[in-house]
Amino acid sequence: MKRLISAIAVIASVAAVFACNKNEGKEEAPAGMALAQEVAGTYSGTFTMSVMGSPAGSENLDCTVSAATDNTVDIVLDQFTAMGSMQFSLSAEGVSVADADGGYSLTGSIDTMSGETHITGSVSGTVGKDGSAEITFEFTPGAMPMSITGVFSSPARNNE
Q1: Where is the Lipocalin-like domain (predicted)?
Q2: Which of 39, 51, 72, 157 counts the most CB atoms within 10 A of its CB?
Q3: In a domain, 9, yes or no
């Protein structure tokens, strides 16, 4: 009986040693923390536009990033004025979030309505681990023959 108890104790000790070393040296995200949650929030910054490389104005506005799934977000840019007097609001749903050097990368497409105008295009950018964001919106309103490039830059996510 003593031998059986000793053998069980040895096996349990060996199993415990191997179980404790399984993840040693690996850096893991906190349990339950999805990539989308890491970038979700409201950012205040500057939206600078250009058309065919020529400046087309800039505005200070907010950009809201909401977690849609573990690895995707929905992005909504506040209403802004482009091309002198045209009012737009932009949104992109299902934007992919991935780990990148020093933060997270965002890539997706724009297919939305702003009032009665159909807007298509793409969205890409980065959110730094420090909460800074730079998101590029390349979009075409309606049947416009050229696209508008808008770059949203924020030094940090707003405290919420």
Answers
A1: 39-152
A2: 39
A3: no
**Whole-angstrom distance, CA of residue 33 vs CA of residue 11:** 35
- CA torsion 27-28-30-34 (nearest 10°) is 140
Average pLDDT value for residue range 39-50: 97
d(CA 81, CA 146): 17
Identity of residue 59: E
CATH number of the domain residue 108 falls in: 2.40.128
The DSSP call for residue 44 is E
Tokens 């508008």 correspond to what residue?
Answer: 148
User: How far apart are alpha carbons 134 and 125 in whole angstroms?
Assistant: 6
pLDDT band at 94 (very low <50, low <70, confident <90, very high): very high
Q: Residue 67 CA to chain centroid, in angstroms?
A: 8
pLDDT the model gives residue 33: 58
Q: Domain total for the chain?
A: 1
63 occurs within a structural domain:
yes
Does any domain span residue 29? no
